[in-house]
């Protein structure tokens, strides 16, 4: 069996971190990269691992690169604090890594996301494959400001069992996250074409229609409506923030 390292990047995740850690106790080591949490995150984490490192927050990509320098084993599974590795996924990973020759450099894992406790099957939220199991010597980090991720040089495979993602536990918390993500997205796209009325008035509505109609968000009932509205709000805030930035530059 190949040894496997688990890595979690976190900050102020006292409500999530314990369940996440419990789900990966089967790994050979657990690495925590913390951005100077002010709550009980570290106190809880120390119950489960001694491999805790703190690093000043300079963006998702920077934290993931820092994490890779602290890992000791060949294979890595990466989780966010609001994610869990269920027993089915654990068994599948152990089965894959028990093979003598593994041609793949990484594996895409489907992610089952929950909104206020309900699994969102549509809206483009599932299966939402994520590259979360990979070889240390083959992985690199994308440079995007938001929705950045791991990538590998070489062949990738797909696993069948899901990462469980408890992404939205409260509306107020999710609103704060939308504010952050829209800012990052605006910074990333700021050099694009001038933002006019059509972008702010029409494109967010088209985003809602894409999620609700074409990606069948209506199949998720009122939860689907809420998810689609949040996507529309994120798009609206992103374009408004780009407009604000462009106006400041042109003054």
Outline the fold blueprint.
Blueprint: E1 4-10, H1 17-22, E2 29-34, H2 41-45, E3 52-54, H3 60-68, E4 75-80, E5 83-85, H4 87-97, E6 106-109, E7 111-115, E8 118-119, E9 130-135, E10 139-141, E11 150-152, E12 156-158, E13 163-168, H5 171-189, H6 197-201, H7 203-214, H8 221-250
Parallel strand pairs: 1-2, 1-4, 2-3, 6-12, 7-13
Antiparallel strand pairs: 4-9, 5-13, 6-9, 7-8, 10-11
Helix pairs in contact: 5-8, 7-8
Quaternary structure of the protein: single chain
- How would you state the average pLDDT, rounded? 94
Percent of residues in beta strands? Answer: 15-25%
Structural class designation: alpha/beta
Describe this structure in words.
The chain is an alpha/beta fold and 251 residues long. Helices cover 39% and strands 23% of the residues. The protein is built from 8 helices and 13 strands. The strands form 3 sheets. Strands 3-2-1-4-9-6-12 form a 7-stranded mixed beta sheet. Strand 10 (139-141) and strand 11 form a beta hairpin. Helix 7 runs antiparallel to helix 8. The radius of gyration is 19 Å and the shape is globular. The N and C termini lie far apart (61 Å).
């Amino acid at each position: 069996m190949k040894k496997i390292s688990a890595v979690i990047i976190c900050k102020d995740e006292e409500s999530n971190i314990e369940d996440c850690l419990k789900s990966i106790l089967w790994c050979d080591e657990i690495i925590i990269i913390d951005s100077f949490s002010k709550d009980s995150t570290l106190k809880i984490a120390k119950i489960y691992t001694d491999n805790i490192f703190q690093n000043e927050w300079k963006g998702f990509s920077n934290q993931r690169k820092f994490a890779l320098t602290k890992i000791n084993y060949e294979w890595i599974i990466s989780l966010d604090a609001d994610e869990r590795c269920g027993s089915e996924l654990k068994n599948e990973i152990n089965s894959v890594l028990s093979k003598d020759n593994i041609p793949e450099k990484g594996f895409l894992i489907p992610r089952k996301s929950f909104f206020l406790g309900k699994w969102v099957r549509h809206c483009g939220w599932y299966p939402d494959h994520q590259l979360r199991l990979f070889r240390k010597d083959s992985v690199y980090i994308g440079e995007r400001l938001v929705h950045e991720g791991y990538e590998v040089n070489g062949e990738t495979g797909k696993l069948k069992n899901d990462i469980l993602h408890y992404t939205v536990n409260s509306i107020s918390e999710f609103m704060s996250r939308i504010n952050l993500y829209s800012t990052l997205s605006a910074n990333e796209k700021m050099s694009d074409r001038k933002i006019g009325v059509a972008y702010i008035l029409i494109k967010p509505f088209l985003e809602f229609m894409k999620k609700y109609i074409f990606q069948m968000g209506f199949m998720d009932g009122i939860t689907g409506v809420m998810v689609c509205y949040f996507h529309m709000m994120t798009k609206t805030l992103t374009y408004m923030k780009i407009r604000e930035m462009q106006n400041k530059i042109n003054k």
